[in-house]
Specification:
c-terminal domain of poly(a) binding protein, single chain, 5 helices, mainly alpha
Length: about 110
């Protein structure tokens, strides 16, 4: 009886990985074993950095809010404490956007919490 190897599925699997590895330097893009390792590691990095991206953006928003409230003689910590005490519910992403693009609206929020 002939040996069954299911070449169709194996080839499809390899093609899928090689397509993901396309554009890598040298053998990383066209040698199956090297490409497989590269793609697996790349997918691990992609998963981890989706979480890191959230942290990075939050810290960027905090830096922008801090820079904006210092013009009004306040620190970020004081501002967030007062905004929570007043019960104003607005997230950091929106506040950072207002601070950069709508300074009048941001000033109104700062004056409301002073």
């Amino acid at each position: 009886m002939p040996r069954s190897v299911n070449a169709v599925a194996s080839r499809a699997r390899r093609k899928k990985v090689l397509k993901l590895a396309k554009g890598n330097f040298g053998s990383r893009g066209n040698v199956w074993t090297v490409a497989k390792n590269t793609v697996e590691k790349g997918l691990q990095f992609a998963y981890a950095h989706r979480q890191i991206k959230k942290r990075t953006f939050r810290s960027l928003w905090i830096v922008r809010i801090n820079a904006a409230v210092r013009k009004y003689g306040m620190t970020y910590s004081e501002f967030i404490g007062k905004i929570n005490a007043k019960g104003i519910v607005i997230n950091r992403k929106v506040m950072a956007d207002l601070a950069m693009n709508e300074p009048k609206a941001f000033e109104a929020i700062v004056n409301a919490v002073k």
